[in-house]
Design a protein that fits this description.
Layout lengths: L6 H19 L2 H20 L1 H7 L6 E3 L2 E3 L10 H26 L4 H29 L1
Antiparallel strand pairs: 1-2
């Protein structure tokens, strides 16, 4: 049986732990960090980490003839390097969309807003061209 004299001390420790966790979670920096972690995790999942784990076919890169290819030329097979490249393109596209949203939602000088719009367009274009190029190299 639990000693009743130790319970108040244990309850106090649990209360302090809960208060410390609550203080950590309520910080804006922690919330921003969790948002970025969610973006990276969802990008990796969308890039195909579940497929790579479930297929049990571990191919780092594809050696075809005398060349090394990141994208295996078949849509039924995915290399680990391909998953990493696709996840990087997803993250670049998300950062471009985020920069686009920040350019319109916050007050910046017109010059800064134009630069943000320019770089967000470049990031989104680069991500789209990378994903399209990767898909075309597979077919």
């Amino acid at each position: 049986m639990v000693d009743e004299e130790k319970m108040p001390g244990m309850a106090e420790r649990v209360k302090r732990l809960v208060d410390a966790v609550y203080e950590l979670v309520s910080r804006p920096g922690f919330q921003e960090l969790m948002a970025w972690v969610a973006v990276v995790v969802s990008s990796v999942v969308l890039a195909g980490v579940v497929y790579n784990v479930a297929s049990r076919v571990v191919i780092g890169v594809a050696f075809i003839g005398d060349s090394v290819r990141v994208f295996y030329p078949d849509t039924r097979v995915q290399t680990v390097a391909e998953m990493m490249v696709v996840a990087t393109f997803y993250i670049l596209g998300f950062v471009g969309l985020l920069l686009y949203g920040v350019a319109f939602s916050k007050r910046f000088s017109p010059r800064a807003s134009r630069y943000m719009l320019l770089f967000s367009t470049l990031l989104i274009t680069l991500a789209a061209l990378g994903l399209i190029g990767g898909y075309l190299s597979k077919t």
